[in-house]
Amino acid sequence: MKRRRFFQTLAAAPAAGMLAQQAPQNAVMNGDEPKIETTTPADAGEPVLGFFNNTQFAALRRLSGMLMPPRNGAPGAIECRVPEFLDFLMNASLPARQGIYRSGLDALNAESRKRHQKPFADIGDAQAADLLAPLKRPWTYHPPTDPLACFLVTAKADVQTATVNSREYAASGVAGGGRRTGGQGLYWNPLE
Questions:
Q1: The pTM is what?
Q2: Domain count, the chain
Q3: Burial tier of 109 (Cβ tally within 10 Å: 0-12, 13-18, 19+)
């Protein structure tokens, strides 16, 4: 046992004794043993960003909500926690893809500040829709050369894919196409 681990164990021993003597307030007594209600880490607090800074993440969150809002009983990108997933995904992506997202979000915020004197996350819906005009251009075989337009096209595809493949979307029971299983054994099987 390493020295540091030994001292950590000694420091935790009195606290463990106190916990064993008293049941927590949110515990439900079942016979002699208390049963503690549990929750997932995602429901307990704010996500810790791994790739984006706060301004970039706020812009990505706003963009995701605009690209995939909740419709016809299906959850949107925000309810499916797509921005958090993209933060995780970009942390493990290749540098070229990371560059598209970082430079794209920075360009989106810069354009918003240039036109409206506010970052993208803080402007109104009509102003934000004006900044997303490159998405209205007709599709071509060649990707756009403008970094902002390239980012918007990439982000739109990623947000849509992440939303419809999320656990929340599958559990909503309104998934389109031939997948109407409500998420039962479709994507999320426990690993043992």
A1: 0.67
A2: 1
A3: buried
